[in-house]
Amino acid sequence: MATSDANVEIGHVTLVVRDLPAVGAFYESVLGLEWIGGDTAEARYGVDGKVLVILKADPEARKSSRAEAGLFHTAFLLPDRADLGAWLNHAAEKGIRLDGASDHLVSEAVYLHDPEGNGIEIYRDRAREDWPRKDGMIAMVTDPLDLADVMAQARGPWRGAPKGSVIGHVHLQVGALDPAEPFYAETLGADLMARYPGANFHGWGGYHHHLATNIWNSRGAKERHQPVTGLAEVGLKADAEPLAAFREAYGDSVADPWGTRFTWSAK
Fold this sequence. Notes:
The chain is an alpha+beta fold. The chain has one domain (about 5-265): 2,3-Dihydroxybiphenyl 1,2-Dioxygenase, domain 1, CATH 3.10.180.10. It is about 20% helix and about 40% strand. It has five helices and 18 strands. The strands form three sheets. Strands 11-6-7-8-5-12-15-14-13 form a nine-stranded mixed beta sheet. Strands 2-3-4-1-16-18-17 form a seven-stranded mixed beta sheet. Strands 9-10 form a two-stranded antiparallel sheet. The model has no long low-confidence stretch (mean pLDDT about 95). Pfam families: Glyoxalase. It comes from Thioclava nitratireducens. This is Glyoxalase. InterPro entries: Glyas_Bleomycin-R_OHBP_Dase (IPR029068), Glyas_Fos-R_dOase_dom (IPR004360), VOC_core (IPR037523).
């Protein structure tokens, strides 16, 4: 299953950064995104002409802390396991340090962060029919990932993010799960797909998750005070029916209880 099989999916994230050239170079050289356009105040990066990441420069912005609500990570979904293997070979050759690597049963994922501490996941999905289920929900775990086995699947060198790469999901930090769940499940209409200690996972159209919320670092966090570095916006892509519903109910955008803003546009 591709995330685009759902009637709503992640389109892009917008990040506020202090050093636009340095962060932009990271998304180009490490993640292999292409520069699509921009200037000294804003730059856009993506795949095959589709914008996935927008960087907005604000050298005076307060640096966000790990205890705040906001971004946990942006997760870039690659088309298949061979692509993940090619990226891991690239990371090894370039000495790119990973923060972790996990087998979640529904996916295989590696973790790192950009120069300003914004979390990143790079992953590939297993086939939908292989996603384990328990008590009517998708069952995810955090098991060790066999990096050598994934790397051996590469069919050639990494040549940048391949066509078909998307932001598969965005994982967020919130102050509490109880007020987060109705916002994501009811306001945004993303079904609760899985629970995990300290985290919930929401998705549209049966996907294991397009959005996740956790309190691992941010329990009790209040609304973020702007201007601050990190996540400024999550852009959703929606089919005509949910797009019309979003616009009728909320206009151009809506924010969760901690100030994380969501916008929408047509697929």
